[in-house]
UniProtKB/TrEMBL annotation:
Ranges for domain Peptidase M14: 31-306
UniProt-annotated catalytic positions: 274 (proton donor/acceptor)
Protein family per UniProt: Belongs to the peptidase M14 family.
Organism of derivation: Roseateles oligotrophus
Gene Ontology molecular-function annotations: metallocarboxypeptidase activity; zinc ion binding
Protein's recorded name: Peptidase M14 domain-containing protein
Top-level lineage group: Bacteria
Listed GO biological process terms: proteolysis
Upper lineage: Bacteria, Pseudomonadati, Pseudomonadota, Betaproteobacteria, Burkholderiales
Amino acid sequence: MTQHAPTYPIGTPGQPWGQPEIAAWRAGIVRQRRYEDLLAAIRPLGADFDLIEYGALDYEDQHFPLLALHSRGWRDELPVLVVTGGVHGYETSGVLGALQFLREHGLETAGRANLLVAPCVSPWAYERIQRWNHDALDPNRNFRPGSPVGESAALFALLAPLRGRVLMHIDLHETTDSDEAEFRPALAARDGEAFEPDTVPDGFYLVDDAERPQPAFQRAVIEAVAAVTHIAPADAKGLIIGSPLQSPGVISFAVATKGLCAAITAARFSTTTEVYPDSPRTTPQQCVDAQVTAVRAAIAYALAHQN
């Protein structure tokens, strides 16, 4: 069961953080893995895809190149498919799922569609298994022009020229016990608000765009993933993370209004995945496989319904 933090250990309850509190938060974060190791897995994919550096981040003494891969022989007349992962650095299966999809299935749509994959949007947070970036800002609330978040601004600039031309965009995420134990309490403390505990959904679910819904598309993805891992049920109130179900395993947000990644491209078919890696009913590899299955099902549906 998730342990809720009644009072976050940084800051004064009811008062938003300033720079001293952000510095104290950052000082308590430990680097737990190396982005260089991830780059070593990304770069060999350049044998089959064009590898592009779409930006870079410099935090203190660290330099992070931001890498994406896209189809070799890009053809403007073909539909565009976008996969993003690692918007939140702690959501490991999104990063690994994007890379496994490229290795095992990335060439399946060659000649039928243009593919663009950004596997790790937030490398500083990836190394530290964190939700926020170096400045205690959430990239997935800041995908907009003039974003103050470097990770978000760089990806927004990469994808902005494709806006309105993208057929499908899937953004790969996780919901973990640390959401309730750490990240939501930290958010409340940072913003000077009271923390209101919620439950963590046990299973896989999707987030549709409430302003541009595609319920049949979402159902097709859920049906495919159900063969790999379990789908999250609603809680006792009939909700998932406070939102009513559009259909089993599917909720919806106004993703553009919230500045979420899945809204950047204005894709006809878009969704955000959420995997629960802390469930006793699944394994880390099943979570990665669920992400890959979701990507493939999303692509298959979009291509079959593009006209």
